Amino acid sequence: MTNNDLTNPAIADISTLVKLRFGVRDLKFFPRIMAKNPLLGGHQSRFRGRGMDFEEVRQYQPGDDIRTIDWRVTARTLTPHTKLFSEERERPVLIVADLRPTMFFGSRELKSVTACQVAAALAWAGLNANDRVGGLIFGGDTQCDIRARRSHHCVLQLIHKLRDFSEQLIQNQTSRYSLSEILEDTRRVAMPGSTLFLISDFHDLDKHCEQHLFELARHCDINFCHIHDPLEAQLPPPANYQVTNGLQRFSLNTRGPDIRRKFEQQFKDRLAHLRQLSVQLRMGCLSFETSAPILSVLQQAYGRKKPGRRQ
Questions:
Q1: Which of 37, 100, 226, 259 is most buried, by the most CB atoms less than 10 A from its CB?
Q2: 29 — phi, psi (to 5°)?
């Protein structure tokens, strides 16, 4: 790694990704949920039994395991009491990062760089929650699978791979993978009960993708992390602009009111469709703009509730 790489705004900065661990200490995106059966995933289940975490003491009821009787409370109250436990259930975190060429775009910061920051922040938050963290990273023509582990080394490995894939976008603008293929690979890797974070601009979300998402949602907790740039939501002020993708150059005239309205409506429709799909499949949906800090979005969605605040 050269000094130029460290300051290149087109490449995710490793030191920035590492420092995000300090900004996500208060994130808690795994609420306690009711477990309906032993096959469903969940972070805490309400199954009664010899679990890992003590929950409460209540009066003994017929059928309770006599081994869980709290003899101290029983002796003090002269009424049989039993201990209840919450079974601790593993909930691995799988972070799927889309770093295809369409993410190599941005008016202030590249979508690919923002995506790397979101992925790193979620990985640190997962590790803080004492969960195993893994990742799937998709570039233009390569992919990387990082097996979920509960270790700082695993998160650092993910961070270094994110940085490498963001650098590859400078040279490679060909795309081998569709979003549908990304989700298909995710289905093969994701374990039942996993929490999935899909980080992408979702520009090629289609019916095939929706079918894969439906199958994933049956066994996993899915969260959309939509990355977009202000220029995708609204054209720049009316004028003639010279636009290039690094290979070709053309003129863009943004003066026409019709084209401006059509452009803005297309973005609104894509975002509305993504949110509607998240509601239908009971998925989380967060939107990250490249010009805004990612931590504020994460804190608002997953931050700990302040004392006295209405839940």
A1: 100
A2: -95, 20
In sequence order, the 6+-apart residues with CB closer than 8 A to the CB of 118 are: 197, 199, 225, 227, 288, 294, 298
The answer to whether residues 210 and 277 touch, using CB atoms and an 8 Å cutoff, is yes
* Cα torsion angle, 168, 172, 173, 175, sign: negative
CATH class for domain 3-32+90-302? alpha beta
Q: In what order do the strands lie in the sheet with 221-228?
A: 143-149, 133-138, 93-98, 195-200, 221-228, 284-289
- Residue ranges per structural domain of the chain: 3-32+90-302, 53-86
Q: Whose CA is closest to 104, among 244, 213, 240, 225?
A: 244
Q: How far apart are CA 284 and CA 221, in angstroms?
A: 8
Alpha helices by DSSP H, the chain = 3-7, 14-19, 71-77, 111-128, 152-171, 179-189, 207-217, 230-233, 257-280, 294-302
Look up the pTM and report it.
Answer: 0.79
Is the separation of the CB atoms in 82 and 70 below 8 Å? yes
Euclidean distance between CA atoms 255 and 199, whole angstroms? 33
Q: Of all helices (H) and strands (E), which one includes residue 221?
A: strand 221-228
Structure tokens at 127: 């590790």
